[in-house]
């Protein structure tokens, strides 16, 4: 049996441990996580697909490595309630509520109404001292955002590892907030694309920008 050819994006799993390690030693590296936050949305908005989730997601690859190759997963079926709309959309709303609350705290620190908290908050509840990772090299609001965003990224990774251990390796992907958001964006784009394709069929396609076909 011919071995499947590897591509450069098959090694993106390494990004997850590197990101978490960088944030452990210097919290300002947490800002790099905005790439993982924005890129899936941009691909969905401008490309109309979940290409990031299907090909480029470093976290999904890392979970596959831990649960698949390293066999750290019980490999049990993902529960139906995790796949349900109410849970996926509920988790999305909760996730973004916590994100905007983090932005509000960042604003308070930036305005001087609140002091910088050099802690990492796990599961939105438990505060862990993390002062060694910040030496005052940036504005307080910049550091506060980094502490908050790293907390969000570390917590979501821990949730992913827990459900990976209990169920299938990529069970996190079933209710991942970014996956749910990109799916919603793709659904919103679909009616427009269907409309463009219908118009092309009715009028005779001449290579318009709508469907991207070249002129015959």
Description:
The chain is mostly helical and 216 residues long. Helix content is 62%, strand content 4%. A hairpin with a 3-residue loop joins β1 (119-122) and β2. The protein starts with 14 loop residues before the first helix and ends in a 13-residue tail after the last helix. The chain crosses the membrane at residues 18-46, 86-107, 141-167.
Termini Cα gap = 41 Å
Biggest sheet statistics: 2 strands, antiparallel
Oligomeric state as shown: single chain
The H-and-E topology, N to C, reads as: HHHHHHEEHHH
User: Which bin fits the share of residues in helices?
Assistant: 55-70%
Instruction: Assign an overall shape.
Output: globular
Count of domain modules:
1
pLDDT averaged residue by residue: 87
Structural class, please?
mainly alpha
Report strand %. under 5%
Please provide the count of β strands: 2
What would you report as the Rg, rounded to the nearest angstrom? 21 Å
> Number of DSSP helices?
9
Low-confidence stretches: 193-216
Strand order of the largest sheet: 1-2
Core attributes:
disordered C terminus; electron transport; 216 residues; transmembrane; iron; two-stranded antiparallel ribbon; mainly alpha; globular
Task: Describe how the helices and strands are arranged.
Blueprint: H1 15-25, H2 33-47, H3 51-56, H4 58-69, H5 80-83, H6 85-111, E1 119-122, E2 126-129, H7 140-166, H8 172-175, H9 177-203
Antiparallel strand pairs: 1-2
